[in-house]
Amino acid sequence: MNYLSPSILAADFAHLGEEIKRIDEAGAQYVHIDVMDGRFVPTISFGSPLMKSIRGLTERTFDVHLMVEEPIRLVEEMAECGADIITVHAEACVHLDRTIDKIKEKGILASVALNPATDLSCLEYILPKLDMVLLMTVNPGYGGQKYIPYVTQKISDLRKIIKERELKVDIEVDGGINLSNVQQALDAGANIIVAGSSVFQGDVTSNVKDFRKIIG
Ligand code: DX5
Ligand code: ZN
């Protein structure tokens, strides 16, 4: 099953509630929430107060991408804010296994993100415990960047490993995805598509519908 996860980082924050309702009604199944700490990535975005105020607006899956150092500190808080999936960066966790256990203990789907240059080998032992892997297709920290082409090979390598090991793990791609390159990511084996600028720039409703036509 394929899903669209619009990243609200690219939304108009002055009208965030309306933007969220728009993506929901147009058929986006997830809401991608980028939490940034100004340390793991240079910028600060938003956190639990914002999540709390939008949780009541939609029943869609809250897909929380933690771009923070030692995200284990935030798992409890994110659970209280209604996160359905929590993604932590392998690069940001000293104790990745413990962090994943903590997410699962809260009854939340657990996911690991890898920066573009991080090797898939760091997933070898943890993969069977995961519900999803997020492959960054740009360097994390900002919306509106360009898709890094070498990650396409990484997506297919990961899909192959998941198949060979007979696991059931979703692959999410995040960064620089638009209507012209999304097919390439799907063909390589991604099934959850994050899109920020390409959803929120212009007509949000028709952008979501155009994505859904391709994604299914
Ligand atoms: C980047 C974030 C992304 C970003 C995607 O660090 O993780 O989710 O919002 O934005 P676009 O689709 O504009 O690259
Ligand atoms: Zn993200």
Low-confidence stretches: none
Portion of residues in beta strands equals: 15-25%
Q: How would you write the strand order of the largest sheet?
A: 1-8-7-6-5-4-3-2
Please identify the structural class as seen in this structure.
Answer: alpha/beta
* Termini gap: 8 Å
Number of strands: 8
**Order of secondary-structure elements:** EHEHEHEHEEHEHEHH
For the sheet with most strands, the description reads: 8 strands, parallel
Note the total helix count.
Answer: 8
Radius of gyration from CA coordinates: 16 Å
Could you describe the 3D structure shown?
With 216 residues, the chain is of the alpha/beta class. 33% of the residues lie in helices and 20% in strands. It has 8 helices and 8 strands. The protein has helices spanning 16-26, 48-55, 75-80, 96-105, 151-164, 182-188, 197-200, 204-215, and strands spanning 3-6, 30-36, 61-67, 85-89, 109-114, 132-136, 170-174, 192-195. The protein has an 8-stranded parallel β-sheet. Strand 3 (61-67), helix 3 and strand 4 (85-89) form a beta-alpha-beta unit. The radius of gyration is 16 Å and the shape is globular. The mean pLDDT is 98. The structure holds D-xylitol-5-phosphate and zinc ion (ZN). D-xylitol-5-phosphate (DX5) is lined by residues 7, 9-10, 32, 34, 65, 138, 140-145, 174-177, 194-198.
Brief characterization of the structure:
The protein is α/β, with parallel strands linked by helices.
